[in-house]
Amino acid sequence: MISIRGNSSRVSFALGTAFLLMCCLKTEAADTTRIDEVWAKEDLYWQRSEHGDVEAYLALWDADALAWPPDTAHPLSKTELGRRLSEPGRPRLGLASGLTREGATDLGESVIVYYEATQQRSFPDGHKDPPRRVKVTHVWKKVGPEWLLMGGQAAPL
Predict the structure, then answer these.
(1) Closest to 58 measured CA to CA, from 40, 35, 83
(2) Which domains does the chain have, with CATH numbers?
(3) What pTM was computed for the model?
(4) According to the model, what pLDDT value does residue 92 have?
(5) Which residues pair with 135 in a beta bridge?
């Protein structure tokens, strides 16, 4: 039998510290998992955008979401965004190069990501606009088993 008389405050402190560290590590791992899931959704977002699959692209957005593309004067609802993307002759938006992840904030059921990207629009006739660098903020929310975009804004750098 081990006697801890006289050392009980040290033992309590050590146990308390160990418990707090375990909680913090578990939370950090959960945060990293959620953030990684959202970054994977960002990759899917750009794949769907580049392939021009409007229906699949819009499936990533919540019904009440707002988007503010860099070439619009005001934010667009999901419905307005869908109409805009479905216009005949409308270019597809793709990445000219990969994303530069600038940060992510995990708020539990929501994750905000910040990144830079080089976009390039491709038109149905085959011509492309020059690449342009933009900064992007997207807010994702866990809705049931899925992460859905709640809002986003992109602006030229």
Answers:
(1) 83
(2) 34-156 (3.10.450.50)
(3) 0.78
(4) 85
(5) 116, 155
